[in-house]
Amino acid sequence: MSPTKNVLEYSYYPGCSLHASAKEYDESTQGLFKALKIGLKEVPDWLCCGATPAHNVDELLSLSLCAKNLELSEKVDGDLAVACAACFSRLKTAQHKLEDSPEKRRQVEYALDAPLAIDKPVKHLLEILAKDYGLERLAEAVQKPLKGLKVACYYGCLLTRPADVPQLDCAEAPTIMERVIAATGAETVNWSHRLECCGANFTLSRPGVVINLSGEILASAKRAGADCIMVACPLCHANLDIRQKEIEEAIHTVYNMPVLYMTQLLALAAGVSTNRLGFDSMMVSPLPLLKEKELL
Amino acid sequence: MKNSKMTLSTETMNIDFVKKVENLSGSSVRRCYQCGKCSAGCPMRSFMEHPPNRIVRLLQLGQYERVLAGRSIWYCASCETCSTRCPNKVDLASIMDALRKCSWDAQGASKESLVQLANRLFLENIRSYGRQYEMRLAAAFNLHSGKLLKDFMLGPKLFSKGKLKMFHQKNKNIAEIEKIFSRIEELRKKGEAP
């Protein structure tokens, strides 16, 4: 018996967080894509994209690390699927900047000691689901509609900004997350902070910044009547979920707001077994909410 | 009123520094006409002594030392809101990167040390391991910053949830990664890269 053929095939760049603090993003992505028959094959020996610290102080290093990853991705067939919003942004930025500047190309080629191979299309999971796989097909794959669940879709910064780089959706008024989750029957809320910054990597150096900015995001989602926040970035998740208790203590409020990766919600709707979705490893457990909505 | 008119010129600004920033960032500094839209949307402005539009103004007025010495450039979160909204195509997020590089290269130019420490440890991790290991990064940060108990309560919880890995492996291609770092250093020594 031969296994059923995948409808789409991708090379996969998980990024560092998905192997550690965001392992539930990785698990739920693998589970969802398997259920949808989308092939994901991890790029061998991928390395850190450099994230914010590299481009903050050393653009050439940032471009070189990304170019090396794009070169490695050529070993696997299929466009490059990226889960982390920051890795996605760095890889796309590298392609964008290197395309424009022969001087930077020369420098990166010297650093890599090889001709550049950076042309593989880089796609965020959202783009794959909404555009390549298609919303209609996604709706057809739903086995357990997320009816009655009010979701606040949180984009953060790097999925859509700056306008000319990620080109995932409109930079200032995107709807791609809402469209994707609406395919499961979930309700989306209108809220003020879906594009605001969570405080990003200040979580290490200046956590007070994160307490402040992520606190406002949680408050906004609560005001809008959301049951949970949906994210597509491991750093946004860490700031909103792992730091939520500290935020609550700092401002003497209780949010108890589950923060879920979009792949966790989609996989739940697609009927993937819940013990493969990492609900247990989250700081604010989504289990009471999902039970209350009769989704478990 | 005639006397209060101020015209920017190569004399009012330090044109060499402005050109350096423009080259590094790929964005014009001189195009900014101070509408303030960048600062209006900046999520970090309340943490900065100079909001983003004033940083550009200080550059235009030749007062770049004040920018490099301050904390503001290190309090930019790289959220890209300013670059997205600028009506005159000033890529302020890239200008911030360029300014940080100038401050970083000058070593110790800025008062802000914790953000720079986090950056340095992050990059050292890549060079030594190939990938980022959050536990190692957080532990090294606490050790070097003297904030030994920072997030002390968080560690065991994260660990019990399987979110922190105790053991790390070096990438198999770590030699190739080291080569990237050393060849970039080589280029800089030869003066062929900024």
CATH topology of the largest domain in chain B: Fumarate Reductase Iron-sulfur Protein, Chain B, domain 2
User: Mean of residue pLDDT of chain B?
Assistant: 92
CATH class annotation of the largest domain in chain A: Alpha Beta
Question: Which percent band covers the strand fraction of chain A?
Answer: 5-15%
In terms of per-residue confidence, which ranges of chain B show pLDDT below 50 for 5 or more consecutive residues? none
Percent helix of chain B: 40-55%
What's the total number of strands of chain B?
Answer: 0
Helix share of residues of chain A?
Answer: 40-55%
Oligomeric assembly: heterodimer
User: What class would the helix/strand composition of chain A place it in?
Assistant: alpha/beta
Return the domain count of chain B.
2
Beta fraction of the residues of chain B? Answer: under 5%
Tell me which CATH architecture of the largest domain in chain A applies here: 3-Layer(aba) Sandwich
Q: Give the helix/strand class of chain B.
A: mainly alpha
Characterize the largest beta sheet of chain A: strand count, sense, and whether it forms a barrel: 4 strands, parallel
Largest sheet of chain B: none
Gross geometry of chain A: globular
Taken together, the total number of domains of chain A comes to: 2
Distance separating the two termini of chain A:
32 Å
Kindly report the average pLDDT value of chain A. Answer: 96
Keywords:
A: 296 residues, alpha/beta, Rossmann fold, 2 domains, 46% helix, globular, B: 194 residues, mainly alpha, Fumarate Reductase Iron-sulfur Protein, Chain B, domain 2, 10 helices
